[in-house]
Design brief:
The complex is a heterodimer of chains A (95) and B (480).
Chain A (H helix, E strand, L loop, with lengths): L4 H10 L6 H18 L34 H5 L5 E2 L2 E2 L7
Antiparallel strand pairs in A: 1-2
Chain B lengths: L7 H9 L5 H19 L24 E5 L26 H8 L3 E6 L33 H8 L5 E6 L5 H7 L2 E4 L19 E6 L2 H11 L17 H4 L8 E5 L9 H16 L3 E5 L7 H16 L21 H13 L2 H14 L5 H21 L5 E5 L15 H5 L6 H6 L3 E8 L5 E8 L4 H13 L11
Helix pairs in contact in B: 9-11, 9-12
Classes of the chains: A mainly alpha (95), B alpha/beta (480).
């Protein structure tokens, strides 16, 4: 499996990581060797095996529909980098 | 008084008869901290040695100081996952395990160092400093719960909590010569644990001996409404049930874990452990876990995929430090996300986020993530089959004793392979414990791993306890 510089740049964008040129080169080589290693999974025939995302035999888990105390909004907003009133403050999204 | 060398149960009996007060233990731990912490560097930041009584009636850990890993929230305390991106994050609430510890009377002393976001097997990716192995300061303590294990091994703590996604409690416990338990997935609430890979993560105790481990697990285990994956099944009285002897217990040795080229000292220690358990009445048989060789590959797809999703929340909006982009190539918001994450995450975190994003991305999802999820089922079925005939599985915890600091930092794949014996356990969701079972000629600890069926922690404690009673490895201490 070969992975190009452009692939790494594109994936970094999807992951919202601003990487330096140096980091891109570094990760390109390392990712290639990791992907080469995980390619061993291709030697198994799993066409008739159901995927398992979770080990527990759980379906929907419901709780009682009752009001319980939650965290005080101010105690949560206090730890944000920027907040105003009851809201998080972010850079302008709509021009 | 050398209170710091005692176990939680030894301290409990002194507290009960009044010969020791809770503050005496903390004061003694302070002197120990001052004497050895600059060598070991086990803590993320200086702990507190002041006693606060938080016990409700009958607290099993009343007066016992406990250290927790830096990815477990404790109200009013910094909880930074040893990452710059969470710099200054003060948890607004207690994790369920912390709440349970406090109600049992334990004092939360402080936070232990770890690999950034638990990404690592050596404690070297912490944004603060690497932790050293108390047995050899040139070696790593293992990871990611390296700080939790090192502080217990160095007698800087009585007990600690870690988290285990692919071996992060057991591998460092093995390398540091302490007892570490990864409970069954769903046994302990994950509420308040900063998520790494949600289908694999479990919190568990790290202690000086098996009895203390059973004591702490008994306190933190159980169903929690805040974690829908915590299972509503009763918590056994581990301490009393593990007294039952192990005559007739069926122990499996998986042939895939004992291969050519295995570290000879680890092999020797395992053979001695097997002989010891046989002398205690256990019956051994060889089994096959045929998909063992695929576990590391499956793990590094599933764990990084889940991590890339879980860590999307660190974007400079709700917590931690925010960085604004200098360039105007993109919108200010996207620029802020990228700059915040670039400055905030270390190299290993970035590597895993890129790998995880890649295996989930359009065009690769089926080939990587979906395929890995199918192989994961095969790995679990291997265990199901073995547990139809056997009570527990015995393996080494780590393929080698502690390695040198820096040795594997530039070779991610060789670092990932140091978890080769522990990873399948998380994929299958079963419990496993690491117990000291030897020392190398150069004086480094070796650990054995006992794996059990889902919710079979009692079986693990029985084997570990009776083994420990007939050996003295757990009494060995590093010279610091």
């Amino acid at each position: 499996m070969s992975i190009s510089r452009d692939d790494v740049t594109y994936i970094a964008h999807l992951a919202r990581l601003g990487l330096s040129e140096e980091e891109i080169s570094h990760f390109q080589g390392q990712l290639e060797s990791i992907l080469e290693y995980v390619d061993k999974l291709k030697t198994l025939d799993v066409s008739r095996v159901e995927p398992m995302t979770h080990v527990l035999d759980l379906k929907n888990v419901y709780r009682k529909d009752s009001v319980v105390p939650s965290l005080d909004p101010q105690s949560v907003l206090k730890i944000a980098p920027a907040a105003q009133g009851q809201f998080y403050k972010v850079p302008k999204v709509i021009e | 008084m050398n209170l710091h060398t005692l176990t939680a149960l030894e301290l409990r009996s002194r507290l009960d008869c009044g010969s020791v007060k809770p503050q005496d233990i903390l004061t003694d731990l302070r002197s120990r901290y001052e004497a050895v912490e600059k060598k070991v560097m086990a803590f993320a930041r200086p702990p507190s040695f002041e006693y606060r009584d938080t016990a409700v009636a009958g607290g099993a850990l009343k007066g016992i100081p406990v250290v927790i890993k830096d990815n477990i929230c404790s109200q009013g305390d910094r909880t930074e996952c040893c990452s710059r991106i969470l710099e200054g994050f003060v948890a607004p609430y207690d994790a369920t395990v912390v709440d349970k510890l406090k109600k049992s009377g334990a004092s939360i002393m402080g936070k232990a160092n770890m690999d950034e976001f638990a990404f690592g097997s050596s404690c070297e990716t912490s944004c603060f400093h690497p932790t050293k192995n108390p047995w050899d300061l040139d070696c790593v303590p293992g990871g990611s719960s390296g700080g939790s294990c090192a502080c217990v091994a160095a007698d800087e703590a009585i007990a600690a909590l870690g988290s285990d996604t692919g071996g992060s409690i057991r591998q460092p416990a093995s390398l540091c010569g302490v007892v570490g338990m990864k409970p069954t997935y769903g046994r302990v609430s994950r509420y308040g644990l900063v998520a790494f890979a949600s289908s694999l993560d479990q919190i568990g105790p790290i202690t000086k001996d098996v009895r203390d481990n059973a004591l702490v697990l008994g306190v933190i285990a159980g169903h929690d409404d805040h974690d829908a994956t915590s299972v509503d099944t009763s918590v056994p009285d581990y301490l009393s049930q593990m007294q039952k002897d192990i005559r007739g217990m069926r122990v499996a040795i998986p042939k895939e874990y004992f291969v050519e080229g295995m570290d000879p000292e680890v092999r020797h220690a395992m053979m001695e452990a097997k002989a010891k358990l046989e002398s205690l009445g256990a019956r051994f048989g060889e089994v096959s876990l045929p998909h063992t060789g695929y576990a590391v590959a499956v793990y590094y797809i599933i764990a990084t995929a889940e991590a890339s999703s879980n860590l999307a929340r660190f974007d400079g909006v709700q917590y931690g430090a925010r960085q604004m982009a200098a360039s105007k190539d993109e919108s200010a918001l996207i620029g802020m996300y990228k700059e915040t994450r670039d400055k905030g995450f270390g190299a290993e975190a970035k590597r895993r986020l890129i790998l995880g994003t890649y295996v989930l991305s359009s065009g690769y999802y089926d080939a990587y993530y979906l395929r890995a999820s199918r192989v994961r089922r095969l790995i679990k079925e291997d265990f199901d089959k073995v547990f139809r005939e056997y009570d527990v599985v015995l393996t080494p915890t780590s393929p080698t004793p502690a390695f040198k600091i820096g040795e594997k930092m530039d070779d991610p794949l060789s670092m990932y392979l140091s978890d080769i014996y522990t990873i399948s356990v998380n994929l299958a969701g079963v419990p496993a414990i690491s117990v000291p079972c030897g020392l190398t000629r150069s004086g480094l600890p070796i650990g054995m791993q006992v794996i059990g069926r889902p919710f079979g922690e009692t079986d693990l404690y029985r084997v570990a306890f009776h083994y420990e009673q007939s050996t003295s490895w757990h009494k060995q201490k590093p010279k610091l």
